[in-house]
Amino acid sequence: MANAGHDEGQQWGGPREFLPGVIGSSPAMQKVAFLTKRVAKTNASVLLLGETGTGKEVIANAIHQLSHRVGGPFVKVNCGALSESLLESELFGHVRGAFTGAVGNRAGRFEAAHTGTIFLDEINSTSRHLQVKLLRVLQQQQFERVGDTETVTVDTRLIAASNRDLAVEIREDRFREDLYWRLNVVPIELPPLRKRREDIPQLVSHFLKVYSEQNERFVVHIQPAAMVALQDYHWPGNVRELQNYVERVVVMSETDELTVDLLPGVVTGNPTPQEFVASTKAIPLDFESLTKQLVAEGLRLAKQDQNDLHAMVVDRVERELIIQVLQSCGNVQTKTATRLGINRNTLHKKMKDYNLEENESSDS
Questions:
Q1: Could you read off the pLDDT of 167-176 as tens digits, one per residue?
Q2: CA distance 116 to 282
Q3: Hey, is 119 helix, strand or coil?
């Protein structure tokens, strides 16, 4: 297996490819590093694809740092954080009187990024009206400020990112196909953390150092059992989730070691019902049947302590969630655990708690 990893590393330009600010040397990240270095020296548009929390902004910054535009500004815009009207003004600027509150002329982010790089995150959130203006900037490097007729010309490289499949967005008529092809000159797909688990020790060590320095702590050791738990976890929130948990450990630790007891239950395989339900909130439930169960049970508990009622509701939601995902995965535990974002041992324990073991199917 070691030779296979070495061969794959060689395939992407050498045994080791490193990027500024990027942690990880797994085969998956070696591919990202190779493509990033290859495209950085050009003026080509780059489309970064990947789940939330995989580090798209870090890669965009690395492209800028390795490019001939490194002396220019690196401007970041989260397109999903602003309404259409605010985003248009933020990107292209406006003139006095263009809208209520526009008391003066204001340059936009594209002008601010002149001679440098602009990074548009969550570009899938933009409206079709705005996509027309973005297409023109890509093709002609020109635009007009909101409320103005004077054309502004800029020299700006655009890097875009999406956490959604843009091909699906095109089919659903939410994203322009012509803009997609202009953005997608060089696509770079960032792997989720669960597909680069060998990078977890290096990432943990890095975040321990960063947050120890920020909080004047000295957490430098990692308990072997804690590392096993971290590498077994599914990481639905990717590197961002790992970063959050390591910061929590540094703040809470009373020693110089990251230990299992400092990790949240969702990582160690013993999540509270609330943690479990929260971590699987993206999975749809059959609420019609669940509501009937809860109403019937709730009437019986209505006169009891409200904490009992809350615990019952959470347990029922968790149990129903497991049942529905088991059924959708053909009762195969490995697939079910992956879909739920937990390890198989956690799933087995919860099935036992809820008397669901009769649904178990051997994995093949």
A1: 889 999 999 9
A2: 37
A3: strand
